[in-house]
Design a protein that fits this description.
The protein is an all-alpha fold. The protein is built from 19 helices and no strands.
C-alpha cells in the first residue's frame, strides 16, 4: 500500500486522537513490552530445566503449546482489554524511541539458542518420543511467534532490519514471507485474489494449502518482477528469496552437523508447526471481509473495517500489537508501540491466541464467526468474501438471519436520522 493511501485512511477515532496533546503522554506498557523478547527466554529456560531433570521436569517439554493455547488465552480473559491509546501527537516521539527497536531485535539471539537447545534434546537417543513431540511443539510455537518479530522488522526500509527479519524467519523456512507480505498481501488484502485472506465458509484446513502455495507463488512472481526491473535474472545474488532460503539451509545444515541426523525430523516438524501458527493468524485476521469495488471495477482503499481486531492486552504484548491490525494496514511502516485501537473496527470475541483452537475446528469457528461477519455487513450478504464452493449453500442457510439483521440496521438508521432531524 503506498503512502498516499496510508495517509488517506483516517477514521474519526484518529481525528479525535489527533486533537489530544501528546507532549506529556507516557507509554503505560513501556516495560511490559519486554514480554516479547522474554518469550524465547522462557522457552530456553524450560528446555534447560528439562535437560537437567528430564524425568522430574518432563512437563517442561510442552511449555510452548501450554503458553500459546492455554496460559496466554487465560490471561487475556482474566486481565481483559487494553484501555490505552497513544494520541496522534505521541506517534512520532514513540517511533523515534530506539528502545522499542532494540526490544524487537532482542528476540532473535535467544530464539536461535532455544531452537538449537531443542534440536540437541530431541536428537538424543534416550529422549522419549512423547517428549520429542513436546519439544518440537515448544520450539515451533516460539519460532511461530518469531515470525511476528520478522513481520515487525520486515516493514522497515533499513537493509539491516530486512536481514534480521529473514534471520527470524530462517528457523521456520518461511523467509519468502518478507517479500509476499509486504508487496502481495498488503496490496491485495481482503480480496478474493489474496491467498492470505480467508473466505467465509472456508475452513482453516482448506485455507492452509491455498495460502502456503499461493504465498510462495506470489513471492516468486513479485521477486522476478523486481529483479527484471533492475535488469537481473531470478538467479541473481540480489534475489531476496534465494538469500532467505540460503539462510534457512545454512541454519538447518549447521544444526544438523552439530546435533546429528536425528535433528532433521525435529527441525522440519517445528518449522511446519511454527509456519502453521502464522497462517492460523492470517486465517483469523481477515475472515470473510471484502473490499468493495467501485463503478470502474477497482477495489476501494483498505480501511479499518477490512481487518478483525482485538484489544486483549496480553496477546498484544507478546505479538507487538498485531491485533491492532486495522491501524497496521493503514500505516504498514508504523512501529508496534504507536499502533492505535479503533472501536468501530470489527472486533473478535477474544485475542488471537484464544482464537487459534476454534480456527482448527471448523464448526466451532463458524459458530463463533459467521454471524459476526453478517452483523458487520448489516445483513448485506453481497458484501462478504465468500468461499465460492459454499456461497450458495451458506447464503441460503443465513438468509433469514441476514434479513433480521438488515431490518434491525435499517431501523437504527431511521431512528438516528429522526433524532438528528429533531
Amino acid at each position: 500500500m503506498n503512502a498516499k493511501v496510508n495517509d488517506a485512511v483516517q477514521t474519526h477515532e484518529e481525528k479525535d486522537s489527533a486533537s489530544q496533546d501528546g507532549k506529556d503522554w507516557k507509554d503505560p506498557k513501556r516495560y511490559l513490552w519486554l514480554l516479547g523478547p522474554a518469550l524465547p527466554g522462557i522457552g530456553l529456560a524450560a528446555l534447560t530445566g528439562y535437560a537437567i531433570a528430564p524425568k522430574k521436569l518432563k512437563a517442561l517439554a510442552w511449555t510452548g503449546p501450554a503458553l500459546v493455547h492455554g496460559i496466554i488465552p487465560a490471561l487475556d480473559r482474566a486481565i481483559g482489554e487494553d484501555q490505552s491509546n497513544p494520541p496522534e501527537a505521541a506517534v512520532k516521539p514513540l517511533e523515534q524511541d530506539k528502545y522499542y527497536d532494540r526490544i524487537v531485535k532482542a528476540f532473535i539471539p535467544t530464539q536461535y539458542a532455544m531452537t538449537f537447545m531443542g534440536a540437541w534434546l530431541a536428537s538424543r537417543k534416550k529422549t522419549p518420543i512423547e517428549d520429542r513431540i513436546g519439544l518440537t511443539l515448544t520450539v515451533g510455537a516460539i519460532n511461530g511467534v518469531g515470525i511476528n518479530t520478522a513481520h515487525e522488522l520486515g516493514h522497515k526500509s533499513n537493509k539491516l532490519n530486512k536481514i534480521l527479519a529473514m534471520a527470524a524467519l530462517a528457523p521456520t523456512g518461511y523467509t519468502h514471507f518478507v517479500v509476499e507480505h509486504n508487496f502481495g498481501h498488503h496490496k491485495r488484502v481482503a480480496t478474493p485474489e489474496d491467498p492470505a485472506s480467508s473466505r467465509m465458509g472456508e475452513s482453516f484446513w482448506k485455507f492452509l494449502p491455498r495460502t502456503v502455495i499461493g504465498g510462495i507463488k506470489s513471492s516468486v512472481k513479485i521477486e522476478k518482477a523486481r529483479l527484471a526491473r533492475k535488469g537481473k535474472s531470478f538467479w541473481s545474488l540480489d534475489n531476496e528469496l534465494l538469500q532467505g532460503w540460503a539462510m534457512s539451509a545454512g541454519f538447518f545444515g549447521a544444526t544438523t552437523l552439530v546435533c546429528g541426523p536425528r535433528a532433521v525430523p525435529f527441525l522440519a516438524a517445528q518449522a511446519v508447526y511454527g509456519a502453521s501458527l502464522l497462517e492460523s493468524v492470517n486465517y483469523i485476521e481477515h475472515y470473510g471481509l471484502l473490499r468493495q469495488k467501485d463503478k470502474n471495477g477497482k477495489y476501494e482503499r483498505t480501511r479499518p473495517e477490512h481487518s478483525w481486531n482485538s484489544n486483549h492486552i496480553v496477546t498484544n504484548l507478546f505479538l507487538y500489537q498485531l491485533q491492532r491490525h486495522s491501524d497496521h494496514h493503514a500505516h504498514p511502516s508504523r512501529s508496534f508501540q504507536a499502533l492505535r485501537h479503533f472501536e468501530k473496527a470489527p472486533q473478535l470475541p477474544g485475542g488471537y491466541a484464544s482464537m487459534l483452537l476454534p480456527a482448527y475446528v471448523p464448526n466451532w469457528w463458524y459458530e463463533e464467526m459467521d454471524k459476526r461477519v453478517i452483523d458487520h455487513y448489516e445483513g448485506d450478504l453481497s458484501k462478504i468474501n465468500w468461499d465460492p464452493d459454499r456461497k450458495e449453500e451458506l447464503m441460503a442457510r443465513y438468509a433469514d438471519y441476514a434479513a433480521r439483521v438488515a431490518a434491525e440496521a435499517k431501523a437504527r438508521r431511521e431512528t438516528s436520522d429522526s433524532e438528528q432531524a429533531a
